[in-house]
Amino acid sequence: MRIQRTQLGSAWILILSLGLTPLTSKAEDAASQQRLQQIRGNISEIKQDLGSDKRQQQQQQQQLSKLEKEIANLSRSQQKTHHQLKQQKKDQHQLSNETNTLRKKLNQQQHNLDQQIRAAYTAGEQQQLKLLLNQSNPAATGRSMTYYNYFSRAQISAVEQTQLNIKQLSESEIRLQKSADKLEKLKQQQQQQQQQLQQRQSQRKTLLSKLNSKINSKQQQLERLLEDEKALGKLLQNLPPQTQDSKIDFSNLGKLKGKLKWPTKGKIKNHFGSPRKQGQLKWQGITINGKAGQEIRSIAPGRVIFADWIRGYGLMLIIDHGSGYMSLYGHNQSLYKDVGDTISGNESIATLGNSGGNSSSSLYFEMRHKGKPINPATWCR
User: Which of 3, 46, 199, 310 is most buried by a 10 A CB count?
Assistant: First the structure.
């Protein structure tokens, strides 16, 4: 009897388990479907966020480009104003010396003329008549009259010269005042340019902070570097083909290997072929640390084929040297040359800066032959 109860209990358990299994599976399926929908919703939100971040980064890159171009223009204008100010100070100093010399000369002439007038007054108004009456010797009288005429003409000449010097002094003082006014305007212009430059640099700093806040992982840094290299590669592919111009004597860089001068002074920070921070990329050029505003010079004669802003490299200048050779100069503060300009060797072409989103001032320098990067260290010394 006990056995039958046990078997009955087992049967009931089996029946109950069979009856409950479909209900449990349905509940689990419903929960799984709910979790799946939730995951899909999260994925959709993440994709939307990523798309929004991407658009935001593109907008910020465009803002960075605009700001750094404005900084470059202001920097270039400021340097031009600085040279004008320097020349104006030199001109004003020269004008001041000329004015002082004229003033001293006029004072001396006025003193001499005053003495002559006093002497003539002391001799009396009828000096010429007295000479005639006082001389008994006709020859002596003739000589005295000649001397008197010389003296009279000297007086007239002194008066005329004094009047001329007064006029010259007046004109010199007017030029000096105009020079002082121009100098003051240049000083005010320089101050305004400096204020605008500081404002743009402050805006750039804020923008860079926003850009860098979105890049938290090495993978994100790698992706940005890959995008930068992709942008540069695309640019180089789309550059106009080399033009042969008989008026331009392009030096063959193949003959200058190991003899070229570095484009600027400074310590090399990143060497050609060395791994970048993430290790999956290598440097295709070199980075030279330096002071903002220091000169950058071309390594050889050529023609400018690119002079603009590009993401990751900032304000860049590319020179075609002929025979498949080109040199690239990035992160500039300002550019002195435009597309189509002919460049001689060791010519000033730009100033060193930190454009392209850099935090420190440096030059990114790259050399290529037939589109492939070559090591600048084997060409420059």
Answer: 310
